[in-house]
Design brief:
Layout: H1 4-19, H2 25-53, E1 56-59, E2 66-74, H3 75-78, H4 115-129, E3 133-137, E4 144-149, H5 152-155
Antiparallel strand pairs: 1-2, 2-4, 3-4
Helix pairs in contact: 1-2, 2-4
Length: 157
């Protein structure tokens, strides 16, 4: 599972072994490629977990709309940062300590100012690319994460 801490560890190992405390663009591409594979594997595992557990029908927002839904865990255990964000409360997000290594945009956080934000946004982008599946937060507890999909009768048409 890719977490913010394991991602930072990958960077630190690369810096110590190869770059002598400097991070090159090429080095970050290698690290990000490995991280992306880990995130895709993590997301596929969540979908497999949902398929194995079984989906329940959920009423959609519109009349006669329904989809399938399965609880897979909370933001704290699923997202790489393990954090829940609110626009007015960002004190739980660590600033990127690598930004001072770059003249322009930081290659580590991609200019987001936080590795947490980069990895969580990346996680969401990968989920958005998966056909017929998506993830959503809970209505009662927004930190609950559900894997969702359309019923096969709809997707087969």
């Amino acid at each position: 599972m890719l977490t913010t801490d394991s991602y930072k560890e990958m960077i630190e190992n690369y810096m110590d072994d190869v770059c002598r405390n400097k991070i090159s663009m090429q080095g970050m591409k290698q690290i990000d490629k490995k991280a992306e594979l880990l995130l895709k594997e993590q997301i596929n595992d969540l979908i497999k977990q949902a398929e194995a557990s079984g989906f329940e029908k959920q009423e959609g927002m519109f009349e006669n709309e329904e989809y399938l839904i399965c609880y897979v865990g909370s933001v704290f255990s699923i997202y790489p940062s393990g954090k829940y964000y609110l626009p007015f409360a960002c004190s739980n997000v660590d600033e990127c300590s690598y930004c001072n290594h770059f003249k322009d945009v930081c290659h580590v956080c991609n200019g987001h100012g936080s590795i947490d934000a980069k990895l969580d946004m990346w996680f969401n982008e990968i989920v958005d690319e998966i056909e017929n599946y998506w993830m959503e937060g809970g209505e009662g507890d927004p930190t609950d994460i559900f894997v969702c999909k359309m019923p096969e009768t709809i997707t087969a048409q």
